[in-house]
Amino acid sequence: MVALSSVNLLSLASLARQKYPACQIVLAADRDLNGDGQSKAIAAAGACEGVVALPPVFGDWNDAFMQKGEEATRKAIYDAIRPPADSPFTTMSEAEFTAMSTSEKAMRVHEHYGEALAVDANGQLLSRYEAGIWKIIPPSDFARDVAGLFQRLRAPFSSGKIASVVETLKLIIPQQDAPARRLIGFRNGVLDTATGTFSPHHKSHWLRTLCDVDFTPPVEGETLETHAPDFWRWLDRAAGGRPEKRDVILAALFMVLANRYDWQLFLEVTGPGGSGKSILAEIATMLAGEDNATSATIETLESPRERAALIGFSLIRLPDQEKWSGDGAGLKAITGGDAVSVDPKYKDAYSTHIPAVILAVNNNPMRFTDRSGGVSRRRVILHFPEQIAPEERDPQLKNKIARELAVIVRQLMQRFSDPMIARALLQSQQNSDEALSIKREADPTFDFCGYLEALPEPEGMYIGNASIIPRQPRLYLYHAYLAYMEAHGYRNTLSLTMFGKGLPAMLKEYGLNYEKRRKNQGIQTNLVLREESNADWLPKCDEPAAK
Prior knowledge:
Elements: H1 9-19, E1 26-28, H2 36-48, E2 51-53, H3 61-68, H4 70-81, H5 88-91, H6 94-98, H7 102-112, E3 117-119, E4 126-130, E5 133-136, H8 139-152, H9 159-172, E6 183-186, E7 189-192, E8 198-199, H10 224-227, H11 229-238, H12 243-257, E9 266-270, H13 277-288, E10 293-295, H14 298-302, H15 304-307, E11 315-319, E12 325-326, H16 329-335, E13 340-342, E14 350-352, E15 357-362, E16 367-368, E17 379-383, H17 397-403, H18 405-415, H19 419-430, H20 433-442, H21 444-449, E18 452-454, H22 477-487, H23 496-509, E19 516-519, E20 522-525, E21 527-529, H24 532-536
Helix pairs in contact: 1-2, 3-4, 7-9, 12-19, 13-17
């Protein structure tokens, strides 16, 4: 029987059951982007006690035949109508199970989970395929589940036996692959950003995250301004009405949506309270999925013991971290794609990658003591300068934007169909005037470098050292730095060695090339002080030199 329209599918299914009361009825339905074909087929199957078979592509079974071929289509139909296999733990006896070897018991556990288990590349973390994504299973939870299977059969067990089965299982099941970076998961399927094709979920995609909305193509004439007005008002206000700033914020949200941790960047949003920073964090959480986001402190990133809490999340939020000061070694390692050590309580330590985008939200920027450039190469600062008046704030803004999420996702996908455009926007923001200004406010040594300019040849100031007396800040670079720090009331100055090591990376952020040469009078650089140094902090000629 063929229903030429889903409108009469329900009545036709009921008629088929009346005519063939003893037969199995298979509804070979359409797989629609909007889910209409699936929902009507499920309703019809309920009315006639039938089975729904969906094609392995979006469209109808003829589309599957044309795209996949006869054999694959036939297999898909048979797989769809085959009744689910019983768990071996419902058919085995206690004696049969007890007589098995450890590897056989591990295989029965694998079968119980529908062969939907995998282990990470380090052979430590177990994941289970559910609803389109691979979810990490906490080791303690999985051990208890396996113990529950033993108990179901009334089979004797101990913690050692359970651990042995679990460890053997890790040697049997597939090793989890890295998800293809071109794929983005949605509730109703997977979008290939390289080809533009949308396909059903499959465990071979190895996705770890989903955006918690259904993907549908943009409607004609759809824009953020007209179809997501609440999001647009927030975006335009946060960007100060500047189109280029709006694009950077959208690029940051796309980075979260696409889980592009592999760009080796982290986001830091700064600004006064009430400027819209928390709304950006909420939108990012919606895009990543509530279950895929967690909050932490930067100390969590730095501590192997604390890092265990970050495993399995694709978005790590760091709220209110501006008082922290350190070199950010853990932050650099995670964002740089390096394996980091994890030392969970009561478990063996191991090394793993943490594939997550990191989003810090602070009133003031974090202070990093790293002078190697490792942090600055990864750090993208977004500053929201305008503090919204209390009477203008909308307490329901988050909920209103949540209702516009599907439009936001479609527009992000359309705007950044080439993901490298988003990456380029974020990289351009790193050394923008806005970002440099924020860094100068947070780091006095970096601010001092803003008073320098470069000559074509090393014919400028000498580096000098602390033992030269009296100080000559117009001749010696290190003396100029000490004079700057003293004029601004800073006590913790860098040693000459640390100052010299950090100079090249800081100057590079200003677009300056640092050169030096050794002469009889010392090491001469290509750096000189800008004119504004005289008015801002250099000692006046009639002032006595600092001793």
